[in-house]
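Can you give me the bound-state structure? Components:
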Amino acid sequence: MTAITTETDVPRTVESARSAGKFLFIAAIVLICAWVLVPIYLLLVNTLSSPSEVSGFPKTGIPSFDFGSIQFFLSFAGVLKALWNSLLVAVLTMILSIGIGAPAGYALSRFEFPGKEIFRMLVIMTRAFPLPLLALPLAVFFIRTGLDDTALGLAIVHTVLAIPFAVLITFSLFSGIPIELEEAAWTLGCNRLQAFRKVVLPLVLPGIAASAVFAFTISWNEVFAAAVLTIENRTLPAFLVQSLNVSPLHLKFAGGAAMVIPALIFIFAVRKYLFAMWGIANR
Amino acid sequence: MAEIVIKNVAKSFGSFQALHSIDLTIADQEFMVLLGASGCGKTTLLRIIAGLETPTQGEVWIGGRRVDKLPPRERGIAMVFQNYAVFPHLTVFENIAFGLRMKKLPQPEIDRRVNRTAELMHIEQLLKRYSGQLSGGQRQRVAVARALAMEPDVILMDEPLSNLDALLRLEMRAELKGVLAGSKTTTIYVTHDQVEAMSLADRISVMNGGKIVQAASPVEVYRNPAARFVGSFIGNPPMNFIPATRAANGQWQVAGVTLSGPAGPDKLDFAIRPEDLTVAPGGLKATARVIEPLGAHTLVTSDVDGRLFRAVLDSDITVAPGDELSLVPKPDRIRWFDPETSNAV
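Here's the bound-state model for the whole set.
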């Protein structure tokens, strides 16, 4: 008789509570992935469809692997030159930001000096100034010094944007190399520079390359400074911003894909080292 | 010939005085162990000799040459690090050859030296491997081989065995002693392990609080500690100490027993090693607390005059906790310390 009442008041098992949590967890993952992947998917589908399919209806949602849009985009006046400019500026940015950022990262990881913490703070602070605020004075200054509308001028601005990341990534790379390895090299006949070249450099080279690729991507994707500081020698993003709002839909998709895909590939290739930047072990 | 002379060396890190005016001479081909608890400055002293740390004051001479202003590579030293510091991007062969290549030795000479030291350290079959493929003990061997291949005047070792497990440490200790005895180098070896120090050293420098308390042979350090610290740091179980008061004509009162001792201040500390006690009438009255049979001996932890007092006694003794014992110290093994300065009298 009493057995009947207990039937209704059974506590939820741990399993059922856990499975509910699991469902929420998976749903959140799916949502976040969809948020990132769906736009990329739509971009790809439309890029790989013929111009008529892009503007036509209904959509199939499956790419027809028609390269008409891409062909048209590449033959569009100025695209190839903008692509070349983008490449040039990105390579310059890469060289400058590693050339300046890696020594800073090394110094931060190996030496104690007054104001070290403030310096680290300041490195990140460079990202705190909104570029639109700096754009006008920068443009004026560049025109005065003759840096306006040059690849070097733009690369300098992009370097400023990329340096915090270059410093942080290389700092974590160098910190991952035990100082004893360098000290051992010193006792075995190396001076500081030789020890760096023979011991530290080979060990950090993959990470340095990754950090360089990241700087490249930052420059590759940057649109605001590029649009303000260049007129004739526009980089691809600046060129697209200028010309695509008056272009047909399929051209916009092709341009978007041309921007996104290299950046995605690069970031994917160096993801391990970007995690390292946030203090997650990279090996 | 590489005699090492350290003159008045001090080092401070900011307001922290790591070393106080160290004076030490290490003879050519001597095996000197710097022994002390962590933070006593022994590694700092070693790093100053290596040139990895600059002294705040003082001079370092190696083989009649003043080196304290020279970079590590010009000091004629080789160093073995606690975490081995084997270069992970080079093979074992290239690790051992690293310093030889820096010296620009001809290839046949490099091959000869690498093979010889690899053979000495029993790693000749590992020469093609990378450090990631080696065990801790093998890495340690590579680090020692790399130092030996340099044929240095001085080898500096910073706790080289402390990352190895106990059995391997024992094995490597014996091997190191053999290899270094045959290498004709002066060796300075830093450790916090007293057994390691005793078994390896020609001479031990016991350090405490940035000072060298005593530098002497292992037996001397054990038998005649220069300070109370040495007596309590070296020896397991450590030395026993009991305050003594002066009695008439050169006699001292120790826990109710009259013993003859040195003339000196009004108060002294009586000290005796646990193994220098025998059970006989007329000795120190001890109340046994803990009995630990160790096979060859029995360790009896007791109270004498309300103080902790340990005795290592013959294992055929029958004693139970709470029993009263009379412990007689061997007269020639009694040591006396001044409680003011804690130095031996």
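A couple of observations. The mean pLDDT of chain B is 91. The first strand of chain B starts at residue 4 and ends at 13.
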